[in-house]
Structures are given as structure tokens and as C-alpha cells.
Structure to design on (776 residues):
């Protein structure tokens, strides 16, 4: 805790329903009695072993108030009635969890850990790591996982150029999401493809499987062989494109985020996948959460009112134009033994058309961000603890 | 197609930007030229094999208009300019995809396939199937999967009372979502549990893993042994409870759906899971999509403004009271060889405390709704085709 965060005074307000804390940087933050009681850190409220809350909200009297509040040894000590329970809150914990603030965020804001990028800022600094280093050195793994969190994609070099090697990447941080395509799937030109991915055609930048709910939040594509002409991979930061759309056409952005789109896929026997989610998904607080963009599986849009449909389509068109803008595109050609991972809720990927006598053999799989972010947070936690 | 859906007339409007269709039931529905062109069903626009769209929105001229529209053989024939392209739309398809309608839905509406339930309507009609029948008879499987879609849970009888049997259930429709808990996990009382689930305490009705994003959308719990006193399973329809909350306190419902909650779990080494999602998640069109409710992993709420926090907590308390209301609770005691599945985005599950000299051994796993709904839709499609 920095000096900045020193707690100086605690003043009970609103008849014991709140307490106002003063900090030596001049800041004041209020907390509610009920909030403090529910979030008490004592071992009757929270398991000391696993941190889980041991009580339910119904175990806390509805009329809970603060009978006494004081600053002791830099911490806040609170006595609650009618429980007659006294607990202590570290000042740093209170500072980190203060909710008494004025925040004016416009719809489409992104978390601090997210950094948007364009070709200009990213083409020459694609985040990458060697598999051997990432699998043996936790600081290398931390950097690589952190890049996925920050930029939504990263490249991995030095994998075996063999079938199944992509699982080594997901094993670094989490678990494969198995689907009707298998634990992983082949991406190569086929004679009678049931999916356009399995041709030599170029593919417009897209997110994968928007017809699936929940959508796979990560995708890994690993290269076993790539000796064709063309067939480069490209990635586009969907959050950057969404921000650009919002800047030039706020109403269009609002339309794409306010109405669900429909997606569907029924290319294989026994499979009829459908989802109803917006192209630009915002959380209830306006946070930009997920981009879904895929011309191939976009189903008829039936949730936009007639009066808005022309403007909705104009916004969709403009979104597509921006996605195709080379200024947003980062390109690399996967060599045998290389893979890349994309945050499939944010970064679109595309493929250039290919030809020639060579072969292009990739394998793809899905995984989920919960595992990746958890592994990253655990490493960061361990490193912080080791540093202290 | 029923007689009701007969298409009688097509009238071009707004200088070719729209067409108004008349139906013999008196209904009129307008479509936009751009929408019709984008959703054309011809084999240059959609792959005849897999149904995927072969063009992008940028392949369609921005100034696309309808030059001619007529009803031919019950279908709509449209000629687009400047492409000089003529395509036909079956009347039934147009009827099913009409978007020109006035819909006034209040926030919290649910899809037609969803039927809410209470103890009064469900305790004596718990949906169930025998495993042997469900695995051999597609109409039995269809009924069982359909119950999960409609009611959010179902029981399965007649499984082997042995480790791993729960995978037989997920194999019927989809894929296990592997997590840090494994492909499946043991649920039995342990000496030093890292999770309260592994004690003999009762557990408040909850959804699983709200600290995971994406949340596992299905959970299966299978019983291998259950000879204790107590330990009954209960399920509660979260959508029914949310509707009850909304009916008695619309503002409270709005608060729980308008502000994200935070969830976290760090009970095991190497695991630090965190998520930020509301307790009641609505789609952008107000559709009720997901309930997250778990006192154990609810982290401090920091996204609710100070001025709303007391009312937010009051709504959370009331939501919890309703969840505990026996009128919403359906109870059954799993016997060896029985399992149940819950839609973890909707139906909460709980466990009564247990004691006695017997043993209670369950196994649990997660899976996802995309696979279940896809399998169900494919069976329904096959049955419809067979009937025609």
C-alpha cells in the first residue's frame, strides 16, 4: 500500500447505514453498512481456506447498521448491530473496492487491460513466444498470456510440425472446448467441403462460430505445412474497428449493439446450431464485451424494427468496410510449427486465397478465456507474492 | 404452409427500396431491398451444400433497389438492380422471417419455448427418461432434450452406478466442458475441502461457476451412492423467480439486470477465476438470458453507484428470499444410477444437509447448451422431414 492510500478518519452517517472514510490524499469514500457486513473478511464470513463466503445474504439482518467505526493501525474497524459483530477491513482493500465515485463512461468503453491496435501500431510488433520457453519459463508464459489479454492475439513459434501439436498450446493455460468439429479439426482444401474454410478461397475477416452460444472465446490455429502461394493469415482488432465505427457513426454503433443478430449453421448431418446475439455486445454498464462477425453464417435479421432496418444495414456495411480496411489488418504467414491464438470475442481472423502446387495444412481448436485469464492471474499473483 | 400464409400481392415502395407484401389473411409485411438481396436463397448467394452465405455485404451494391416484384406460383419473385439479378423467395420463408411488426415486449421476456414452473406445477411431473430408452429411441431422446429446453432441467434414470457414468448423459447430445475441476469432478464430503460443495453442509440454491466467463451452460450431477440421511437435491426455476421479483419490484429487477456483479474463486493453487456479469442478464432486446446466483463466490460489488447500492442490496435480498421460498422448490433424492441435468443459465440447484452413517457420492460435469439445442433441432428437423 502506498502512502497515498492512508486512511485517516471514519465518520458514521445516515443513522449508521453508511460510513464515510477520509484518506490523506483528500479523497472521501462512503460505504454502506450492508455492503461492509456482506463483504466482511473474518473467518466466520469467509472460509480462510478457499475464500468462499460461508453465509448467505439472508443470514445478515435486514436492519444491519454500524454502531461504531474507527481507524486502528491503518485499518477500519467496524461494529455492526444487531449482530454485535466487530470486524476489521485493511485500508488497501477498502481503497481497491471503493464504489463511491462518479464515473461517466460512454457505451463501448473497454477495460484498462485492453489496448486497441491497428496495422500501424502492431504489424512490426506482433506478440510472440517460443513454445520451449513458454512451457519452461513462467515469466515467458506470463508475457505471452498477457499479450492475449491485452491485444487479443499472439503467435507461438517452435511447435512440432505434427498433428495435434496445437493441444500443447492450450495445455499451457487451460482446456479445449470440444464441439461437433471434434477436439480439434483439420483446415485444408477438400473436394466436397461442408464449410468454406475447407477450400482454397480467401475468407473475409470473421469471428468463428457466432452460431454457438456460448461462443468459443479462444481459437488456436496451428500450421503443419504451408508451401502454397498465398494463404497468409491476417488478424483485425474488432474492438478497434468498433471504436472507429462509433467515432464516425454513433447511431450505427448503437444499432449494431442494440439489436440481436441471428447466426446459424447446419452444414453437417445432426448439427443445427443457432444463436441470437448482437454483432457488437455490450455489458449492462456499456462495456464492450464481444464482437460477432461472420458473413457466412449470418442468418436473416428479424429483430430489428422495420423503421430501423435501413440504418442497421448501413451500419453493418460500414462495419464490414472498416474491417476490410488494410489499415486495421495485421498479416503474417504461418510456417510449419507456428500457431496463433485469437480472442474470438474480439479479434477477427482472415485468410488470403491460395494456389500453387504446395500444401496448406492447418489444425484448429477452440478453448476458453476463463482458463487463460485464471492461469495468468495465478502466475501474476505468485510473482507478486514472491516479490513481497 | 397453411392457407393462412398465402401471398397475394407485391407492391414496390419507396422508389424500389422496399416491397410490401399482402397476405390473404389481411396482413401486410414490408421488406427492404437490401435485406432481401442479402438473404437471397439462390446458389450464387448461399451454398446449396452447407447453406453458408457465399458473398459478403460488400459484394452487394449499396444502391440496390427492386426493379420488379411479382407473385408467381405462390412465391415472391424479385429483380434487383443494378445487379440485374432475379431471385425467388418461397412465401412460407417470407412469412417466417417477417420483421415488419409492432412488438412491445417488456424487459425480462422469455422465448416461447421457455415455460416457467413452480413447485405447484412441477413437483409431481418432473421430466425424466430412462437412459436405455433415450440412447436407443430418438423420440425419447427428443422428449428429454426438449424438457431441458422448456423447463431447464430433467432427470435421467437407469444409468450404471459407477464412476464416469455421467459422460453417457453428455454423449447423448454434446460435449463436456472441461475445466480446472477436470472433465468431471467428485462431489462427496472431504476432510479439508477446497470448496463447500465437498462438505455435508446444505448448499443454498445457486448456479455453478458464475466466476467463469463463459459460464458453463449445462451441469450434470450423477449419483453413484446415496445412503445418507438427507442430501436431497432441489431445483428452482431462476426465470420464474426473476419474473416474480419483477412483478413485485420492477425497479429492483432493473437494478439486478442493469449493473454487473463480480464473482471470483481462488480455492485451488494455480486458479484465480473472475467474472463480471449481472445476476440477471438480459439481451439487448430485453430477453431474459441468464441467472447468476451464488453467495459463496459473489465478490464485492463495485459497479453499482453509491446512490443505488442500498436498493440494489434490497433487491438482491428479496431475490434470495424468493429463491428460498419453498413454493419455487422442486425436490427429489437421487438414488444410485440416477442423474439430473440443469440449464445452468436458468435453473438453480441446491442440496439439503446430510448426516448418518451412509455414503453420498455424486459426480458432476459441465457441458454446453449449443450442442444440446443443436442435437434437439436436428432430431426435430429429421422428424419433420420424415412426416412430410
Amino acid at each position: 500500500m502506498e502512502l497515498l492510500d492512508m486512511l485517516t478518519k471514519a465518520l458514521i452517517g445516515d443513522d449508521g447505514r453508511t460510513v464515510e472514510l477520509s484518506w490523506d490524499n483528500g479523497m472521501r469514500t462512503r460505504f454502506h453498512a450492508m455492503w461492509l457486513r456482506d463483504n466482511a473478511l473474518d473467518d466466520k464470513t469467509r472460509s480462510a481456506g478457499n475464500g468462499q463466503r460461508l453465509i448467505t445474504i439472508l443470514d445478515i439482518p435486514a436492519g444491519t447498521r454500524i454502531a461504531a467505526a474507527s481507524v486502528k493501525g491503518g485499518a477500519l474497524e467496524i461494529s455492526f448491530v444487531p449482530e454485535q459483530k466487530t470486524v476489521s477491513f485493511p485500508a488497501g482493500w477498502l481503497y481497491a473496492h471503493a464504489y463511491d465515485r462518479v464515473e461517466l463512461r460512454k457505451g463501448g468503453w473497454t477495460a484498462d487491460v485492453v489496448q486497441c491496435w491497428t496495422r500501424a501500431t502492431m504489424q512490426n510488433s506482433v506478440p510472440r513466444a517460443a513454445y520451449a520457453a513458454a512451457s519452461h519459463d513462467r515469466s515467458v508464459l506470463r508475457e505471452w498470456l498477457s499479450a492475449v489479454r491485452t491485444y487479443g492475439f499472439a503467435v507461438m513459434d517452435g511447435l512440432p510440425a505434427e498433428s495435434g501439436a496445437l493441444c500443447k498450446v492450450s495445455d499451457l493455460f487451460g482446456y479445449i472446448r470440444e464441439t461437433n468439429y471434434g477436439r480439434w479439426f483439420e483446415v485444408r482444401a477438400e473436394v466436397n467441403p461442408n464449410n468454406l474454410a475447407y477450400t482454397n478461397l480467401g475468407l473475409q475477416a470473421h469471428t468463428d462460430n457466432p452460431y454457438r452460444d456460448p461462443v468459443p472465446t479462444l481459437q488456436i490455429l496451428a500450421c503443419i505445412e504451408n508451401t502454397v502461394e498465398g494463404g497468409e493469415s491476417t488478424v483485425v482488432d474488432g474492438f478497434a474497428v468498433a471504436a472507429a465505427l462509433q467515432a464516425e457513426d454513433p447511431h450505427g454503433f448503437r444499432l449494431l449493439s442494440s439489436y440481436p443478430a441471428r447466426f446459424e449453421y447446419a452444414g453437417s448431418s445432426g448439427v443445427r446450431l443457432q444463436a441470437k446475439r448482437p454483432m457488437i455486445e455490450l455489458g449492462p454498464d456499456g462495456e464492450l464485451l464481444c464482437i460477432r462477425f461472420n458473413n457466412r453464417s449470418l442468418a436473416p435479421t428479424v429483430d430489428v424494427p422495420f423503421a430501423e432496418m435501413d440504418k442497421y444495414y448501413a451500419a453493418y456495411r460500414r462495419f464490414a468496410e472498416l474491417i476490410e480496411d488494410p489499415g486495421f489488418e495485421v498479416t503474417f504467414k504461418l510456417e510449419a510449427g507456428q500457431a496463433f491464438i485469437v480472442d474470438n470475442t474480439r479479434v477477427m481472423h482472415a485468410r488470403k486465397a491460395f494456389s500453387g502446387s504446395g500444401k496448406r495444412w492447418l489444425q484448429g481448436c477452440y478453448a476458453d478465456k476463463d482458463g487463460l485469464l485464471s492461469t495468468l492471474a495465478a502466475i501474476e499473483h505468485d510473482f507478486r507474492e514472491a516479490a513481497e
The longest helix of chain A spans residues 306-324.
